[in-house]
UniProtKB/TrEMBL annotation, chain A:
Domain of life of the source: Eukaryota
CDD domains for this protein: TRAPPC2L
Stated family: Belongs to the TRAPP small subunits family. Sedlin subfamily.
Any one Gene Ontology cellular component term annotated for this protein: cytoplasm
Membrane-crossing segments per the record: none
Biological source species: Spirodela intermedia
A Pfam family per the record: Sedlin_N
One GO term of the biological process aspect: endoplasmic reticulum to Golgi vesicle-mediated transport
Protein name from the UniProt record: Trafficking protein particle complex subunit 2-like protein
Automatic annotation (TrEMBL), chain B:
Record's protein name: Trafficking protein particle complex subunit 11 domain-containing protein
All copies of domain Trafficking protein particle complex subunit, residue ranges: 254-527
PANTHER family referenced in this protein's UniProt entry, alphabetically: FOIE GRAS, TRAFFICKING PROTEIN PARTICLE COMPLEX SUBUNIT 11
Top-level taxon of origin: Eukaryota
Length: 143, 1160
């Protein structure tokens, strides 16, 4: 189950962070997402030699955090998408599919002429859309 | 890891027992211990002690149907220290070969050993110790021993002590034998237990696990790591089955036992994997281990036991990973990454496991606290007297506890009930200070993360560490750590995290009584941008925080201070979100004393309106500082946007105030800071910004710019916001001092030209006046710096400032502070109003250049005693263009003596038609040797003023005056030769010299022409020979050669009409050859003569030929004699007398000349 998704800006500033748990441990996810930026940086600074990762936005499993797994996705504009899940075994294809849809939703949100780049994303449409993407996570249906 | 027993942590080592001959035990033990692999020894000094290793009677009950526990605590230690694989019986050869009584003793001892060994299947070795080769034991004895001991003949060996070589050989033999036998023993033991496993003759899982564990340990004894790993795995598998089916009996203790065993097995497996270099497998194994055990929390009352256990798992694995980090391959992360493998880089970081360990320990602490306060556990916490917790000790099984009852000498162990155990566990857990452990773990993780440049992870660990400190009441440390990490959160704008950290910081400051920090943190928190912070950083909470800091004091002693505290807000302070001030002057410059208008804009982002009692605005000129308070400003406010109470700062809206100030002293007036009193005890002092710089840079709040919702212009006026500056230039007051530069026409090269300077006060007093003098090339060629070639030639500058002198009473060099070639700085004495001062600038021109002379006077209008800024500084500037001119141009030429023509061959070659004397090309003037030549030096005045020439001389090149041998002053032109002579503009001053070169030379130096001149006294400037300017000019080198022929024309000075006269042409041959000459005589209307027109003659060497003609003059007055040409055949050179040389004055009748009359 996805417990948290986040969009982190170019300067590692949070643009959007939404947790999907009932408890009041949302701050924990702020920490987890923030820490995951270290791994993203590490991945960016020490890229793998192997070919397929070239121009590959999907970063895969970033790190295990307590009982969660953190996945990452890095766009060309250095905007990061972070996914925190409780599932121990996430299929690669599911994660990729999720990020692709998430990315699309983000692109639509920032294409809004009233959006100021670098500012937090607050549109309700985006929040609803992300909620839908999160709910459908893991289902094999394509987006 | 330290809490594990030694035998668990280290790989097992085979054990061999030595019996008898105690004197040798030390040697053999040391030798065996240094073997590879080492062998431990159990030394028994005599045969009576052999019963130690005898099996206990009840040991055989192993095959029972059920077991009380899984692993026996002592079993591993027993095999490592008490049960040897091999027993070596040492007998001395004397005993074997000695008398029958001794032999009998040997036999008895061997029997005893055999009996003990047989029960445990231990291998036996008989060692006969020979002290020398002679003590050899006979074969009969050997055979007898072999039979007695029932051992193979190869396990009877001799140990020779005769020499070191033999001894070493014996030791090696023993070691090899022991290694082989112990291997055999452990293999057999392992196999024996393996058959039990295969037979499955029991139905309880405990025994399966125990046997697997034993087989694995025996395999480890044999260093068969693969088998050991397999059986440890099997044992763990067996244990795994027990997880699902916990017995109903004693569930707490049962779970503890299972987990302890699991921990043991996991430790063994991890160690083996890591030592085998299989780091990935070890990590995967660890994850499996954690995943399978994670949910075995057990009863919630004793959940802390589980969390402690979890924490220990992570800690031990972290330590294992750290100690084996040397073998972690660097390419280990290659199998992770985007491909979706389960391992990431972070799985290889011990720091991660330390962090997790700390996390679980923290969980344990929380859980323990919950248990201690829960009502269900009250009976556990306060156990009845009957349950004496001291008597609970670990039982013989790993992970089990039992109660020891002491009845006299007899100790009996009883099982413990779960409730008792829970009380025991709670009591034990209470004894530990978990916080310190947690802090240490987080610190370790944080340091490790910092080392691998994972700053955010490190910050997270530091954050947790600080919270732990906070919980333990160590607020100083908590604050220190949090202060370090909030910077990162601010920089990356993680509001929620910052909010949390600031909250803790605020509480720490409150607890520590740090009022200023408390206010800073509170205000920063209150002004944080609104987010959907998970921990309730809503608007209302921010308002509460602000109210707490700025609101009226509600009887709390904490806020009561005598002295109001100042909160400084500089360009990088986080408090810029709280309070921001921008100042803009309406004008760029203002006259001194005139009013200047400025607009002050204030912005606060606090959630609630702030009331400001007083505003203090500070400038770099303290005299301009002013204070605004709500009562005074009402009248002055011109801004129409003022809210009803004038100093109410509404959140997110600029408050604009326009104020007029009296400009202070001239120079820069800059607004430094704006201090606002926002609470009775607190003043916030904000560095002032120009609106323009604020708009251009992200300075309003570097951290939160992107979150700002409202950001309209700070001044409200677009022009002001674009160009408004917090600095205004106050102009200088008009100077009331005259600076006069008087110049007297053009300057002349070489002279010291003085420019009078006078400072006349017309109203201002002059204090600490300074005169700056600067010379600049008027053509704009920059300063008068010469080109390098000219610099090398000598005098560095074309125009040089030599000195500045004042004419006051203190005409001293002290006046002159610094004089450079083109720059000077002179102090002007203090002048009262109406006084004056004058001085002279002395400037010397080396080249004719036009320069600009800039003189500026800077002075203060009042004495600077009170302080640096007491008086106004005023500057007066003047400039003057001065032309530099060359006064005199020196020229010279050479003339041969009258009516004498030496033949110069070099001149001939170049110019065959011959010619007069000097004058030609100056570089190649040729002079005849030993003949006098006239040198005329002339000086032309080419400037506009009359000059006085004091003297003109030729100086010897060696420095001696007077021309030496070569040049002698001849006749002076005019009468007053020594007295100086005034040369009017355009006139020429001439001097004659005679040059007689003594010897032949290709380049004879004639020396310098030295002219001393002054300005004519009538036209100003210094007169007299003292101040005469010396001009030197070098005469060009001349060529001196010996003339082969000299032609001289001789005739009387005058003639009388009708009287014949004779004129001679003398040709001197100065060579040693015969010279042939031709000569011709032209006709003349004024004279008649007889004789040939043309002839030729030969002149003998070193002799003279004279051609004489007698002529009769026919007309009176100056008449030219008939034209004479002389041609030297050898040189093809012709000389003809010039008109001047061949003119004679003819009197009509003989003159009457009376010399005496003439003289009178």
């Amino acid at each position: 189950m996805i417990v948290c998704v986040a969009v982190v800006g170019q300067q590692n500033n949070p643009l959007y962070l939404q947790s999907f748990t009932d408890g009041d441990d949302a701050l924990k996810f702020h920490h987890i997402v923030h820490c995951s930026l270290d791994v993203v940086e590490e991945r960016v600074n020490n890229p793998k030699k192997s070919g397929p990762t070239l121009n590959e936005p999907f970063l895969g499993l970033l790190y295990p955090a307590e009982n969660y797994k953190v996945y990452g996705y890095l766009t060309n504009t250095k905007v990061k998408f972070i996914l925190v899940t409780t599932d121990l075994d996430v299929r690669d294809a599911d994660a990729r599919n999720f990020f692709r849809r998430f990315h699309a939703a983000y692109m639509d949100a920032v294409s809004n002429p009233f959006h100021v780049p670098g500012k937090k994303i607050t549109t309700r449409t985006f929040v609803e859309r992300v909620g839908a993407i999160v709910r459908s996570f893991g289902s094999t249906l394509p987006a | 890891m330290e809490e594990y027993a030694e035998e668990l942590r280290t790989p097992p080592v085979a054990l061999v027992s030595l019996v008898g001959m105690p004197e040798l035990h030390q040697t053999i033990s040391a030798s065996l211990h240094s073997e590879q692999p080492p062998i431990n020894t159990l030394a028994l000094p005599d045969f009576g002690k052999i019963s130690i290793i005898a099996p206990k009677v009840k040991e055989a009950v192993d095959s029972g149907q059920s077991a009380a526990g899984i692993l026996k605590r002592e079993w591993l230690a027993k095999h490592r220290t008490r049960v040897p694989a091999v027993v070596a019986a040492l007998f001395s050869s004397d005993g074997v070969t000695g008398d029958p009584a001794q032999w009998l003793q040997v036999c008895t001892d061997l029997e005893n050993v055999k009996a003990v060994v047989r029960g445990r299947n231990i291998k036996l070795v008989v060692v006969i110790v020979q002290s020398s080769l002679r003590d050899e034991v006979s074969d009969d004895h050997m055979t007898a021993l072999k039979k007695r001991g029932e051992i193979d003949s190869k396990y009877i060996t001799t140990f020779l002590l005769s020499d070191t070589l033999e001894k070493r050989k014996s030791l090696q033999r023993l070691a090899a034998m022991f290694a082989e036998l112990s291997n055999t023993y452990y293999r057999e033991e392992g196999r024996r237990i393996k058959t039990r496993i295969e037979k499955k003759s029991w139905n309880c899982a405990e025994l399966h696990i125990r046997y697997c564990f034993k087989v694995a340990v025996f395999a480890e004894f044999r260093r068969d790591w693969a088998e050991a790993l397999r059986f440890y795995n099997d044992a763990y598998g067996g244990l795994h089955e027990m997880f699902g089916a916990p017995t109903k009996l004693q569930p707490i203790q049962r779970l503890v036992e299972i987990k302890t065993v699991a921990e043991y097995l996991h430790f063994k497996v991890s160690t083996l994997l890591l030592h085998g270099g299989k780091v990935d497998e070890a990590i995967k194994w660890f994850h499996k281990h954690i995943a399978s055990c994670e949910r075995l929390v057990g009863l919630p009352e004793v959940a802390f036991l589980h969390w402690e256990w979890m924490s220990r798992q992570f800690l031990v694995f972290a330590e294992l990973l750290e100690t084996s980090s040397a073998v972690i391959p660097s390419s280990v992360s290659a199998n992770s990454g985007a491909s979706g493998a389960t391992l990431t880089e972070w799985d290889f970081q011990p720091a991660y496991y330390y962090q997790m360990s700390a996390h679980y320990l923290r969980k344990k602490k929380d859980s323990l606290e919950a248990s201690l306060s829960a009502p269900e556990t009250s009976e556990w916490r306060n156990p009845s007297e009957s349950t004496a917790l001291e008597s609970i000790v670990p039982s013989i099984f790993v992970g089990q506890f039992s109660r020891v009852l002491e009845e006299g000498d007899l100790l009996t162990t009883l099982p413990v009930a779960d409730a008792e155990y829970a009380s025991y566990a709670l009591a034990e857990a209470k004894r530990f200070q978990d916080s310190f452990e947690i802090i240490a773990l987080y610190r370790k993780a944080s340091e490790s993360f910092t080392a691998s440049k994972a700053t955010r992870m490190a910050s997270f660990c530091s954050n947790r560490m600080a919270r732990e400190y906070y919980d333990t009441g160590d607020f100083t440390n908590a604050k220190r750590i949090l202060d370090d990490i909030v910077g990162l959160y601010r920089r990356e704008r993680w509001v929620a995290l910052l909010w949390e950290a600031l909250g803790y910081l605020r509480e720490c400051s409150r607890k520590l009584g740090l009022l200023k920090e408390f206010a800073e943190y509170s205000l920063e928190m209150a002004a944080l941008p609104l987010t959907e912070a998970p921990n309730g950083g809503g608007l209302s909470q921010r308002g509460v925080i602000q109210e707490e800091v700025l609101g009226p004091i509600k009887g709390e002693t904490f806020m009561k201070v005598d002295q109001p505290i100042d909160l400084e807000v500089d360009a990088v302070s986080p408090l810029r979100t709280v309070f921001l001030a921008s100042v803009a002057f309406h004008d760029q410059s203002v006259k001194p004393g005139a009013p200047a208008t400025l607009t002050l804009s204030l912005l606060s982002r606090l959630p609630q309106p702030v009331e400001i009692d007083q505003l203090e605005i500070q400038f770099n000129q303290p005299a301009c500082n002013f204070t605004l308070s709500s009562s005074t400003v009402k009248n002055q406010l011109s801004s129409s946007e003022e809210p009803p109470p004038p100093f109410l700062l509404t959140p997110g809206k600029w408050l604009r105030l326009t104020h007029e100030i009296q400009s202070g002293q001239s120079g820069k007036l800059e607004c430094l800071s704006v201090a606002a009193r926002i609470a009775p005890w607190c003043r916030i002092r904000c560095q002032a910004d120009s609106p323009a710089s604020m708009e251009a840079s992200p300075s309003p709040s570097p951290h939160w710019k992107m979150l700002d919702e409202v950001q309209n212009s700070s001044t409200g006026d677009p022009i002001l916001s674009a160009a408004g500056q917090k600095i205004i230039q106050i102009e200088e007051p008009d100077p009331q001092v005259d600076l006069i530069l008087a110049s007297s026409g053009p300057a002349l090269v070489g002279e010291i030209f003085s420019v009078p300077v006078s400072v006349i006060s017309r109203g201002h007093s002059v204090f600490s006046g300074e005169l700056k003098i600067n010379l600049v090339d008027a053509k704009g060629g920059g300063l008068i710096t010469p080109r390098e070639a000219e610099a090398a030639a000598g005098d560095g500058h074309h125009v040089e400032l030599l000195a500045v002198s004042g004419t006051g009473e203190e005409e001293d060099d002290d006046d002159i502070k610094r004089i450079r070639h083109s720059f000077g700085l002179v102090a002007v004495p203090t002048l009262a109003a109406g006084e004056s001062w004058s001085g002279k600038l002395e400037i010397k021109w080396h080249r004719p250049r036009t320069v600009m002379l800039y003189v500026s006077l800077g002075y203060s209008t009042s004495s600077g005693d009170g302080g640096g800024s007491a008086g106004q500084r005023v500057n007066v500037h003047r400039n003057l263009q001065i032309e530099g001119k060359t006064p005199l141009v020196l020229n010279h030429r050479f003339i041969s003596p009258f009516r004498c023509e030496p033949l110069l061959v070099s001149k001939l070659r170049r110019r065959p038609d011959g010619g007069g004397g000097g004058g030609g090309d100056p570089t190649t003037v040729s002079l005849p040797q030993s003949e006098a030549t006239v040198l005329i030096v002339s000086a032309l005045n080419c400037c506009d003023v009359p000059l006085r020439c004091v003297s003109l001389s030729v100086e010897d090149p060696d420095g001696g005056g007077g021309g030496g041998a070569a040049v002698q002053a001849a006749v002076r032109h005019g009468a007053a030769a020594i007295a100086s002579e005034v040369v009017a503009p355009g006139e020429e001053f001439k001097q004659f010299f005679s040059v007689v070169p003594p010897s032949e030379s290709p380049g004879l130096e004639l020396g310098h022409v030295c002219l001393r001149w002054t300005r004519d006294a009538g036209s100003g400037g210094g007169g007299g020979a003292d101040s005469a300017v010396v001009v030197r000019q070098k005469l060009p080198e001349v060529k001196v050669e010996k003339p082969p022929l000299v032609v001289k024309l001789e005739f009387p000075p005058y003639a009388v009409l009708g009287d014949p006269l004779t004129f001679h042409v003398k040709v001197q041959n100065q060579t040693s050859f015969l010279q042939e000459i031709k000569y011709s005589l032209g006709d003349s209307q004024s004279f008649v003569f007889s004789g040939p027109h043309q002839d030729k003659a030969s002149v003998l060497p070193r002799s003279e030929h004279v051609v004489s003609h007698k002529v009769v003059p026919l007309g009176s007055g100056p008449q030219r004699l008939p034209h004479v040409n002389v041609t030297a055949v050898r040189y093809s050179a012709k000389v003809s007398a010039s008109a001047a040389a061949s003119t004679v004055f003819v009197f009509p009748s003989p003159p009457h000349l009376d010399p005496e009359e003439e003289a009178s």
